[in-house]
Amino acid sequence: MTINLNLPPELENELHAEAEKLNLPFSEYILHILSTRKSTDNFPKTGAELVKYWENEGVINSRLDITDSQVYARELRHQAETRERA
User: Fold this and answer.
1) Is 36 helix (H, G, I), strand (E, B) or coil?
2) Is the dihedral of CA 73, 78, 83, 85 positive or negative?
3) What's the predicted TM-score (pTM) here?
4) 71/47 same-domain check
5) 60 and 23 fall within a common domain
6) How far, CA to CA in Å, does 56 sit from each of 48, 51, 61?
7) Phi, psi of 43 (to 5 degrees)
8) How many domains is the chain built from?
9) Are residues 51 and 32 in the same domain?
10) Burial bucket for residue 61 (CB in 10 Å: 0-12, 13-18, 19+)
11) Domain of life here (predicted)?
12) pLDDT tens per residue, range 13-41
């Protein structure tokens, strides 16, 4: 099937750049994006499903530099509370 799309120039440029980084032809990259999309029917509905989803997507444990999440959260909170306002 052939589909003609009128993409906004900035989106087209972004997609072309991503395809080049992966060394893929533009049309093949677009096909890859469409074939790996997530269906809205399969979104997590419970906390456990959400955690499993994040694990599968590589989000959980992606920051190996954070060894203690509680300490890290306190540090972030302290930084936010003590930063200068513009």
Assistant:
1) coil
2) positive
3) 0.47
4) yes
5) no
6) 12, 9, 11
7) -65, 145
8) 2
9) no
10) exposed
11) Bacteria
12) 999 999 999 999 999 999 999 888 777 77
